Amino acid sequence: QVQLVESGGGLVQAGGSLRLSCAASGRTFSIYSMGWFRQAPGKEREFVTAINWSDASATYADSVKGRFTISRDNANNMLYLQMNSLKPEDTAVYYCNLRAYRNTLPYWGQGTQVTVSS
After folding, report:
1. Angstrom distance (rounded) from CA 51 to CA 111
2. What is the pLDDT along the chain (118 residues), one digit of tens a residue?
3. DSSP states of 75-97 as a string?
4. Please, which residues have CB within 8 angstroms of residue 44's CB and are 6 or more apart in sequence?
5. CA separation (Å) from 82 to 9, 16, 86?
6. How far apart are CA 104 and CA 118, in angstroms?
7. Among residues 33, 63, 32, 69, which one has the least CA distance to residue 47?
8. Is the distance from CB of 51 to CB of 32 less than 8 angstroms?
């Protein structure tokens, strides 16, 4: 099993920044990719960004391009999300996920709340 623990959420004013972290533990001998999703109240969970664990190539949702940056620390199995120029519409619970292999179901963390006030 893999355990994922997110941290770093909180309340911030519009235009501010937050940095989320996700610590992976357990059976982490194989990681294909890790990523961030978010879910706002009354909405479905949506993709935010993901990073390939071996080459660090990343993809982003259009809504966060240029504002959010994903990064990883391979040695410590840590994932980060630097969020700048935050908007009220970024308010959501942010979830970290991990795929051990390309076509396997991901593991999920419990989420961390991000609230952006206008």
Report:
1. 18
2. 999 999 999 999 999 999 999 999 998 889 999 999 999 999 999 999 999 999 999 999 999 999 999 999 999 999 999 999 999 999 999 999 999 999 999 999 999 999 999 9
3. GGTEEEEEE-S--GGG-EEEEEE
4. none
5. 11, 11, 10
6. 39
7. 63
8. no
